[in-house]
Every structure is written in structure tokens, then in C-alpha cells.
Amino acid sequence: MRKFSTDEIADFQPATRLSVAGSHPEEAFGFVNPPVYHGSTVLFPSVKDMAERTNRYGYGRRGSPTMSALQEAIGAIEGGVGVVLCPSGLSAVSTALLAVLKAGDHLLMTDSAYDPIRTFCDNVLARFGVEITYYDPLIGGDIASLFKPNTRAVFTESPGSLTFEVQDIPAIAEAAHARDILVLLDNTWATPLYFPAHARGADISIWSGTKYLSGHSDILFGTVSANARAWRALAKTHGDTGMCVGPDDVYLALRGLRTLAVRLEAHQKSALELARWLETRPEVSRVLHPALESHPGHAIWKRDFLGSTGLFSVVLKSVPHKAVAAFLDHLKFFGLGYSWGGFESLAIPFRATPYRTATRWEPEGPTIRFQIGLEDVRDLKADLEEGFARLNAAAAE
Ligand SMILES: *Cc1c(COP(=O)(O)O)cnc(C)c1O
Predict the structure, then answer these.
(1) For residues 84 and 206, what is the distance between their CA atoms, to the nearest angstrom?
(2) Residue 27 is part of a domain; what is its CATH number?
(3) Does any domain span residue 1?
(4) What pLDDT, on a 0 to 100 scale, did the predictor assign at position 2?
């Protein structure tokens, strides 16, 4: 029966790693997939074994063969020292921040962060005595000018939520590491496949598995990977706070992970085609997609990323709100709803202006974020074309 060592797997191409890592047919009667272990109690053979913790697993919250399979598979594409599993992307972020910060520490937080992360910082971290400064996502190596004696961590997200600023992670990491400051990255958009976070300087790589990892809009999930600098703190806080995920969701995440590479290629291709087409539309002022040559962050994206995914935004030319509603309300394939990364296309109107505190974001017209799903791109384009006809009719009324 085939059996690969962790070192062998690390030499395979990423898509191959996604296929083989965490699969142990030799331990599962030949079955390719691991069993889904439902369990809290794990029995020990004797008091001596209990005292010496000889079992590989001691209690359901702390691990199971199903969880290990997923941790191994994610670890194989993250390339860090270890991975922990969390019940949502937001809890993955909060776990990572709680792992590295203590009262009196200073945190630098990107102004383009996913908004609920800001809420966690302002409502929870601040209450526990952490000082938070929001910074311009485009600051690059000048982040050093914001360091204080108590700065412990820099939180990054690239590209930024809704507004897609591309951050210079290697420059930020170089400045931070010179002062022994940790770099955390929310890598949900690119995934470890298209942005190798640790190799680019992130000590902690966070992934909302609700999105492309699961890929089917049927679970909430989050993962955190750490390098040697951050792993002990992460593993300890994850265990101490009781973070764990039910076995069925762990299994669904593993099932999603196996097809990540092919799904991302499809999302990438369709999203780029539609983004390029949207750039030519008279109703559109700007398309915020890092893989477009017109994007201000394109050069850094090209230098650091290995691909682009299915999520981007557009800034429309100035039209009344009712025209935007006419566009969105009757789209056939684009659902109106939060989250993304599933097989289905989505579109939401958004206003990023109120979130900002360190920078201003004042677009020239209404803004829409698109998630391009796995439908045939011709159907999606026709849907959007009809939407623009409705938008123009409503704007002319
Ligand atoms: C969705 C999202 C999260 C949070 O993930 P949940 O699973 O919804 O909690 C965190 N960061 C980014 C960038 C996201 O898009």
C-alpha cells in the first residue's frame, strides 16, 4: 500500500501534496479517506499509560485521527511547523492574536482588515489591555516608523477585504523581524496555494476555511499555521482556550481541500475573464482585481503571488442607489449574500468608507464585490449584461 513520509510529500508539487497528504489507507483498512471519529472520551489501557500519556490521542477536544488527517494535509501546503483547526475564520484570527499578545503589548493592524477582525480588536483585545494602531495597508517597509518599544505583532491581510490593496509582506516582515516582532497574515483570498505565506515572511498564516478550503458553502471553518517562531504559543493558546471543531466539519474541510487546486484554477480563469470584460463596460469606473495590469498593486502581486482567485470588486460610475439595486436584485446566478469561496457566484454592495480610521477610502461611485463561482462564464456574463441594462434603465428614469 502506498505510504509517503512527510519529507517525501514536501518535495511533491502543491497539487500532489493536496492529493496525498493526510491519507493513511494503511491505518484505515485500505480506505483512502480517514474515518470520521465522533468522540470525547478516549480509553487508556492502564493507570500507568494514563500517567505517561502513551496514547496518541487523550481526549476528543485535543485531537483525533480525522483532525490529524486534515492538519497534515494543510500543513503540507502551508509549510510551517504546525496547524491548528478552529470553528470559523474569525475564531482562527482571534486565536492567533490571543496567542501572540498580552496586556500592555502593542498591535499594528492593517486598515483594510476584514471588519469583524477590527471589532474583535476594539471590543476584546482593547478590554484586555492591548494597544492597537491601525496603519495604511500600503505602508510597506515604513511600518518600522510605527514600531513602539511594546510592539509585539503586525497583522496583515493581502489583498485587503473589499478594497483589494496588495501589501508588501516581505518588506513588512523584514522590518518586523529586525525588531523581533511577529507578522500575522490573513491569507484567505490567495490560500496557501497562491501565496506561500511562511516563505514570504509571515510567522502566522490564517485561513478562513469557510471560503475556498471547504469550497461548498456548507461549513464554517478556520485554520492557523505557524512557523518555528510562533508555533509553541499558538498550540498552547489554541489548547488553553478549548478551540475545537466537530468531526463532520473536519471531514468536509478535508474533502474540500482535495479539490482545491482545480477549483481555484477555474475560479481564477472565470474571474479574470469577467474582470477584464467589466473593465471595458461604460458603467464601470474601476475594477479592483490585483491580477489586472491596471491595479495599483499589480507589480507586488506579480512578484509575490502564484495566482489569483475568484473574488474582486468594482467601482461603478456614479449612479443612484436604485440603479445599483435594479442591477443586483434580479441577477439570476449571482446570489446576494455574505461569505464567498463556494461553487456559486455572489454579489454584494458594500461601503468600506465607514470602516477606515488610518486611511480614507472614498470611491467615485457605488461599489460591488463579486465572487465568481464555478458556473459557465458565458452564463455569468449574460446575467451581468442584463443587469447593466436594468441599471441603465433605472438610472435614466
Ligand atoms: C470570511 C473571512 C474571515 C472570517 O471567516 P468566517 O469563517 O466567516 O469566520 C476572515 N478573514 C477574511 C479575509 C474573510 O474573508
Answers:
(1) 10
(2) 3.40.640.10
(3) no
(4) 75
Return the residue whose CA atom lies nearest to atom 3 of ligand 1.
89
**Is 339 in a helix, a strand, or coil?**
coil
Give the range of the structural domain holding residue 91, as residue numbers without chain letter: 6-258
pTM for this entry = 0.97
Cβ contacts of residue 7 below 8 Å, gap of 6+?
A: none
CA distance 185 to 89: 12
What lies within 8 Å, CB to CB, of 288 at 6+ separation is 163, 164, 295, 312, 313, 314, 315
| Residue appearing with cell numbers 500532489 | 16
Residues near ligand 1 (Cβ within 6 A): 88-90, 93, 114, 157, 161, 186, 188, 208, 210, 220, 222, 339
The closest alpha carbon to 109, from 70, 151, 81, 77, belongs to 151
Query: Which three cell numbers, joined as nine digits, stand for 206?
Result: 490564517
Question: How far is ligand 1, taken at its centre, from the CA of residue 341, in Å?
Answer: 10
Grid coordinates representing 56? 496518541
Q: What is the pLDDT of residue 3?
A: 83
> CATH code at 355?
3.90.1150.10
Query: Which residue stretches of the chain have pLDDT < 70?
Result: 1
Of 330, 315, 320, 332, give the one whose Cα is nearest residue 369. 315
Q: How many CA atoms lie within 13 A of 266 on its CB side?
A: 17
Is residue 145 in some structural domain?
yes
Residue 211 catalytic? yes
Q: What is the pLDDT of residue 184?
A: 98
At 153, list the grid cell: 505583532
Indicate the length of the chain as a whole number. 397
In a domain, 299, yes or no: yes
The rounded distance, in Å, linking the Cα atoms of 57 and 53 is 9
Distance 121 CA to ligand 1 centre (A): 15
Verify whether residue 236 is a known catalytic residue: no
Give how far Cα 210 sits from Cα of 85, 246, 272, Å. Answer: 12, 14, 22
- What pLDDT, on the 0 to 100 scale, is given for residue 381? 98
Of the residues 93, 166, 184, 208, which should be mutated to test ligand 1's pocket, given the most ligand atoms within 8 Å of the CB? 208
Helix (H, G, I), strand (E, B) or coil at 350: strand
CA of 339, closest atom in ligand 1: 1
Distance CA 7, CA 79 (A): 11
